[in-house]
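Before relying on records like the one below, remember that each one covers exactly one chain. Contacts with other chains, cofactors or solvent are not represented anywhere in the record.
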Amino acid sequence: MLTKRIIPCLDIKDGRTVKGVNFENLIDSGDPVELASRYALEGADELVFLDITATENKRKTLLELVEKVASVINIPFTVGGGISEVEDVKNLLDAGADKVSVNSSAVKNPNLINQIAERFGNQCLVVAIDAKILNNQWMVHLVGGKVPTEYQLVDWAKEAADRGAGEILFTSMENDGTKAGFAIDALNAVCDAVSIPVIASGGAGTREHFSDVFLKTNCDAALAASVFHFKQIAIPELKSYLKSQNINIRL
């Protein structure tokens, strides 16, 4: 059985790590290079770096900052934000990323998923999906959650997987930053719909929320930000707790 993964996330704006609630009211959460170094030392399984204003500002990801983060960690490193063409992926991998995450650009041009997977392999492609409930349905949103689409969450997850995504990173906008727990029902729907790994994101506030998401869904990893940034949950203690709950985790 594969071990479950704990993944801190660095949401980057203007070169700093930020965090909000429901994608709004962002506050400064620290220097991304310092945080990345700490998480690697603490035993994080992977690190995700999302340049959250790159798409909105119509620019590319901050390559220099990606290089600095990559230089201080020795764990798998996923980078997203502003990726709109295959060449962007090459630049990020050259800068030290192990995987890339595409979101808005993939919805606007689904064939981009096929192109990236064909050139670099699906093992390095994460399709990130931000969704919230509209009219009692989970609907995909773009540009940092600001733009609703016609895509239903499960339908888009299935299409992304079929086109070559290696993993799905699903963030519940309803739960994001609330520290009230992950969106278990929606995660189960996504996990049931695809055969590739699913990363749960949005809502982590306690150790029990992590154990819940692993015990009640088939997700492969849990991603969180503020609880790690502000030292409300320490990764070594979290992993020890999960191990005590008979969850297969790497210590």
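The chain has a mean pLDDT of 92.
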